[in-house]
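Q: what sequence does this backbone want?
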């Protein structure tokens, strides 16, 4: 029996993907699988299922699809591939994502991993990656990508990503993600990344923005008010012939003009209702040129 199944993939003809017409994606614009130079499954050196050392599906210990406890495709509740309503490959209209019964991507509640009946990753009996006997990625002797006979990625004839003629992502006509009709992530009903409850990146950005904006506003008003109070302080003590030095913040180190009522007639002689005082970044207080000469000559450093 093992020899019989071994001959399924051992056939020298292997006509699965060898067909010259390859009608999977026949579109004149889509050149993914149509290229004559694409040697993915055609190469005589491709030993994926032919190698006698490859024990992926042959191993007696590998219980992925053999285990009696594995209910992925066997479960009566899981109707993905068993349901009579699922017309994946049989329907002429290809009802995979269009079917009213298939609510994987169309459902507003998105019940893929939420459903209580869906036991793919939830089941305690599911031993795909948990089983102690599963040696796919755990075994030190596993030769999937290590075997000298295994030529999947190592073969010099394998031109999957090496071929200069392979236009999968290079073609200007490939409109897979460019098409204006592709509404997978654009749809107003698809709330996976659009949901108001998804605050992972939204809250982080808002927090950072609030932090820096509030800090800048406080910083701005503090510096402006400090310049105003320091100017009034200098003007007040100027009439008492006191020497006062203004302290400036480096951000507001340029010339700043403030208006204030005259504190002393002797200091701001001829000023009027309000006097314009020029404050300079290098320190000191100077009167405006329009004010009396005696006032203009006064300087506090």
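A:
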């Amino acid at each position: 029996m093992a020899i019989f199944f071994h001959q399924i993939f051992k056939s020298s003809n292997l006509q699965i993907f060898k067909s010259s017409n390859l009608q999977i994606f026949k579109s004149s614009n889509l050149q993914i699988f149509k290229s004559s130079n694409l040697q993915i499954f055609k190469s005589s050196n491709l030993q994926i299922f032919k190698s006698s050392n490859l024990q992926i599906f042959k191993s007696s210990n590998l219980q992925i699809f053999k285990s009696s406890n594995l209910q992925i495709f066997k479960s009566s509740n899981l109707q993905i591939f068993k349901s009579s309503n699922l017309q994946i490959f049989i329907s002429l209209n290809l009802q995979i994502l269009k079917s009213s019964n298939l609510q994987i991507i169309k459902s507003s509640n998105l019940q893929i991993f939420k459903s209580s009946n869906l036991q793919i990753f939830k089941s305690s009996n599911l031993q795909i990656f948990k089983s102690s006997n599963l040696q796919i990625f755990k075994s030190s002797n596993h030769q999937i990508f290590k075997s000298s006979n295994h030529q999947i990625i190592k073969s010099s004839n394998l031109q999957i990503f090496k071929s200069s003629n392979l236009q999968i992502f290079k073609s200007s006509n490939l409109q897979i993600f460019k098409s204006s009709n592709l509404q997978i992530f654009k749809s107003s009903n698809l709330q996976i990344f659009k949901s108001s409850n998804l605050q992972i990146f939204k809250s982080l950005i808002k927090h950072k923005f609030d932090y820096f904006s509030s800090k800048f506003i406080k910083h701005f008003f503090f510096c402006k008010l400090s310049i105003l109070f320091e100017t009034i302080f200098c003007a007040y003590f100027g009439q008492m012939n006191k020497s006062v030095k203004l302290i400036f913040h480096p951000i507001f180190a340029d010339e700043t003009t403030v208006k204030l009522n005259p504190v002393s007639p002797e200091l701001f002689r001829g000023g009027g209702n309000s006097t314009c005082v020029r404050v300079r970044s290098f320190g000191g207080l100077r009167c405006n040129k329009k004010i009396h000469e005696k006032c203009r000559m006064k300087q506090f450093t």
